[in-house]
User: Fold this.
Amino acid sequence: MTLPFPVEDIIATYLRAVDAEADGLIEGLYLEGSVALGDFRPRTSDIDFVAVTAAPPQGAALAALERVHARLRDRWPRPFFDGVYLTWDDLRAGPTGASPRLHSHEGRLNAGASPVSPVTWHTIADHGVICRGPTPAKLDLWRDPHALAAWTDDNLDRYWRRLCERACRPLSAWGLATQSSYGAVWIVTGVVRLHYTLATGGITSKDGAGRYALETFPARWHRVINEALRIRRADRARPALSSLIAGLAEFLPVGFTCDRRSLYATPQARRRDVLAFADTVITDAHRLHCGRRGGRERDEPPSTQE
Assistant:
């Protein structure tokens, strides 16, 4: 796979730097996320990685990685080089045995509880981009479709339902964020990606989630889905004030070309559809999970059609 710009340069710089600081420390390096799923957007995506070491980095090895990440962050503030440091044993054991682990968030190393989930293992297995180490097919890689489905179903409430409940308060942080382009993409594609996993057992990108949603959910929701796809493909929506201002400008009546115009008249109208659609998707995803646990296959469209 040919890596998009600037991913190839960042990966090459990282490997050279870490080899110079601690030769032999990084035995494997795999990319997941948007790069692996073919949906990398240079201005808004992160570079998601799994680095493999023989043992959890400590002492001199940890200090070396801190220096490498600091230099990488100084040279490339964006995209963030974010991921987790696992061992070969972690890859065999799965996420329950891999926490806490050293990880990078927004380019900064953190030794606290690492945000690992079954999604990481399944993405590496099915889509992982190899930068160093054996192919995923040759790894003794943990996979458990039932654990992936259970985690996905739980995450719908533990993260997404709670987020949407906070967003229902207009003056809360997420209430304001859902009026932004970033909030629309994050929520619409986020809940649909989980629905896709429960429906198919696979992992998809944000753009893939949008295309899946157009095929899966009724026309009532196509405007908000197309809005999320439009924003995602324009590669402009980030959780930053400049992005928020640029997104609000899309609602101005004049001065912008058609591809920069929102499909909604106001951000408030879009926000209402974003939250209503998220509720629809979460409810139907739970239905899918319950049906599969009961041995029933999905043989009907979403029950929440309007």
Q: What stands out?
A: The chain has a mean pLDDT of 90. The chain has two domains: 7-138, 145-293. The domain at 7-138 is CATH 3.30.460 (Beta Polymerase; domain 2).
